[in-house]
Amino acid sequence: MGNIILGAAVIDDIAGVILLSVLFNFASQGALDVGDTMLLIAKVLLFLLLTPPVSRALLYLARALKPDDDNSGYEVIITMILICFFLGLLTCLALLRYSVASLSV
């Protein structure tokens, strides 16, 4: 039951991001750009396809580097560090994109 709720929440968030992006582009440009919308959907799908294998590989790497006698919640800590790292990277990329876009306007 929990997986169904989590899956529905993820789908809801993805639909919200796409809809918000389409509405923002429509409000700022005055017209709907299908190319930008398709590019956004492709990026979201690429992210969803690449995230599980990359995170699984990084977790296996972290497990290989972990000492055998350590039971201190190492995997949880590594997972939280990776989440913070990728969120920071995403924020930097978004800021870079929008700062470059605002310079060209």
Mean pLDDT: 78
Helix-strand string? HHH
Count of helices?
Answer: 3
Instruction: Give the percentage of residues in beta strands.
Output: under 5%
Q: What radius of gyration results from the CA coordinates?
A: 18 Å
Helix percentage range: over 70%
Overall structural domain count = 1
Poorly predicted ranges? none
- What is the end-to-end distance? 48 Å
User: Given the C-alpha coordinates, what overall shape results?
Assistant: elongated
> Major sheet: size, sense and barrel closure?
none
The structural class is mainly alpha
Membrane topology: Multi-pass membrane protein
Keywords: Antiport, Ion transport, Membrane, Transmembrane, Transmembrane helix, Transport
GO molecular function: antiporter activity
Domain Cation/H+ exchanger transmembrane: 2-89
Helix and strand topology:
Layout: H1 2-29, H2 34-65, H3 74-104
Helix pairs in contact: 1-2, 2-3
Brief characterization of the structure:
It is found in: Membrane. With 105 residues, this protein is an all-alpha fold.
Write structural notes for this entry.
- The protein has 105 residues and is an all-alpha fold.
- It has one domain (1-103).
- 87% of the residues lie in helices and 0% in strands.
- The termini are far apart.
Brief descriptors of the model:
elongated; Cation/H+ exchanger transmembrane domain-containing protein; membrane; mainly alpha; 3 helices; 105 residues; Na+/solute_symporter_sf; 87% helix
